Each structure stands twice: as C-alpha cells, then as structure tokens.
C-alpha cells in the first residue's frame, strides 16, 4: 500500500475484541467506505487528467483491460492493449487510485490533485500466487458456507430495508474462515465482489481487503475499495424512488455531518453536538459543543479541516422527519477530513454503541461524488 495517508473509503472499522458495543466507522468501510478520500466532485474551477500504464511487475509486459478507478466514486476506466489508461475530469482533491486485474494483486496509490493539470501514475501489478488445496465438498460444508454467507451479509450489508434490496451477483467468490477462533468470522475474496443495490440504484464492484467479525464481542473490522456504477432505471418512477432513497440514506449520515461541518451549516441542517463521558452521553446529557469553536473545528486550508475533541462526543440529528444519535471517539483526539466528508484516516473515528452510525453498512454507502437534491424553494 502507498506510504501516503491511507484512506480506504469510509469503510475502515476498528476491531475491538471483546468489547460488547459495536465499533463501526463505515465510511466505506466504510470501509467504510471505506472506507478513500476525495474532495467533492463539484464546485471546482479546474479539472485534472490522470494517465499512465499498468504493467506486469516482473516482466514489465503491458496489462490490457486492467481496471483503474478512483475508489469510492463512480469514476473508472480500463487499460488498452498497450496497458495505457486515461482518466479525465478529475477535480482538485485527494483520492485513492486503484488498479486491479484478475490474476494479479490489487495496487492502490494515494494521489493529490492540486496544481498540476496532468498527473502520471504507473502501476506494476504482481501476479497473485494461488495455492490450490484439495477440498471435498459435502452437503454439510455447503450448508456451512450458506450459513456463513448469511452472517456475512448481515454484518457487511446490514439488515434494514435497503440491505434487503441488495443482491450478490457472484457470492461464490467469497470464502469464509474461523481463523481467529470459533467466534470470529473472517471473509476473503481474490475476485471482485459484485453487488446490485436495487434500493439506491448502484452496482458495487468491491475489492475486499479485510473482514473480521466477532460474534461474541460484536467488534467489526471491514476494509474495502469500492467502485460505484449507476444502474439504469426502467422508468421515471424507479429513478425517482432511487433519488429519494439515496437522499434518505444521506440525511443524518456521517458524511452528511462532516460536509455540513465543513460548510458551516451543521446546525441549520439538523446536527447538534455534545461532548462528555460515554456515561453522560448515553444518558442524554453532556456539554453543548458550538460547531464553530476553534478547539472543536478548524479549516486548515481550502480543502481540509480538522475535527478535535477529547473523550467522546454525541452527534444528534433532527431534521426532515428523521432523527438519530451517534456516540463517537477520535483516536489521538483529532482527525482530518475534506469538503466531501471523506476522512483521511477513517480508522481514527470510532463509533460506539448501537446508534445511527453504528448501523451504517455497505448497503447504505453512497459515492463520494453523490450530491443530494437541492432543497425545494419556499
């Protein structure tokens, strides 16, 4: 992985065994989202071009039809027969650029698009070493795999109505193990996992880097790179439903909060923050945190901001007929994020308990380039 700040798509979730409260940071993983980082794909006065080659790390031979994409967005392309690629129209900001090809190990590089109009980025992919073990499938083993897939689905996608409308297109590429003990489920895949989210109208191509879930402790660690592709609506009614469901998933989410904080509109958009101990915050108490207090929030440049607070904070959301509360902590006391709501180090934010953000899973992830519909004029 690159030496630059590692920013895996809003979907990196710290694992804390055996603590009972769920510790989530999806974003997306998220990995989330993501976990990756990126500044918003709008309101920019210039765009950039990314070009380069993808070659075999040993033979230096060009690799045709390799996928190159900005993780967590809807932007991607593939290489030509000479291994060349071009991605145009990239806005100013920071992104994880991912190159992948069947039979090769994924490679990701963190790039910042600022003053240069064109950035050259070559990838050298290493062939994946596949160890073949003789496995005799039985009815019992197939049943065990289906049961593990059901558990994985609940933790990876969630259990709400949006998750119910998600379909694994190739679940057979996912393997399950109990390597950390009988209570820890580990999932892995050497292939891209494809999921159609029929509630939000996206096809997700997921490169699963890590997934561990503790059934006993409730801890979850999930890290992946995701490329979003909009599905084609069958009619205007379906397109409208997708737009509304996306807006519902966005309202009150962590990315919504961070974007509004960056823009200075967190209070008008329905967010209120309190700080204190976990016990105080769980009881609905705590000290009100002004969003513009310099010790809490500061812009550190045109593209970045810093969120800081000791101990814990509770983020309450009340707006548009929706409500929810989430208790969070910051590893190290502060975290950097950008105007798109992407955290440069997603694992620095830990979500405690079973609040609104703790229930966010991959099914509710939206692309970094998603923008909610503008409020209706009054």
Strand content: 25-35%
Tell me about the biggest sheet? 6 strands, antiparallel
What count of helical segments does DSSP give?
5
| Overall morphology | globular
Low-pLDDT stretches: 1-44
Q: Structural class given helices, strands, pairing? A: alpha+beta
Average of pLDDT:
83
User: How many runs of DSSP E, i.e. beta strands?
Assistant: 23
Pattern of helices and strands: EEEEEEEEEHHEEEEEEHHEHEEEEEEE
Report on this structure.
This protein is an alpha+beta fold. 14% of the residues lie in helices and 35% in strands. The chain has helices at 139-157, 161-164, 236-250, 254-263, 278-282; strands spanning 31-34, 47-56, 67-70, 76-78, 84-91, 93-100, 107-113, 118-120, 123-125, 166-168, 175-177, 184-188, 193-197, 202-214, 220-230, 271-276, 287-288, 297-299, 304-308, 312-319, 322-330, 334-338, 349-352. Strands 10, 11, 12, 13, 14 and 15 form a 6-stranded antiparallel β-sheet that branches. The model is unreliable at 1-44 (pLDDT under 50).
Topology, element by element:
Elements: E1 31-34, E2 47-56, E3 67-70, E4 76-78, E5 84-91, E6 93-100, E7 107-113, E8 118-120, E9 123-125, H1 139-157, H2 161-164, E10 166-168, E11 175-177, E12 184-188, E13 193-197, E14 202-214, E15 220-230, H3 236-250, H4 254-263, E16 271-276, H5 278-282, E17 287-288, E18 297-299, E19 304-308, E20 312-319, E21 322-330, E22 334-338, E23 349-352
Parallel strand pairs: 2-8, 2-9
Antiparallel strand pairs: 2-5, 3-4, 3-6, 6-7, 10-13, 11-12, 12-14, 13-14, 14-15, 16-17, 16-20, 18-19, 19-22, 20-21, 21-23
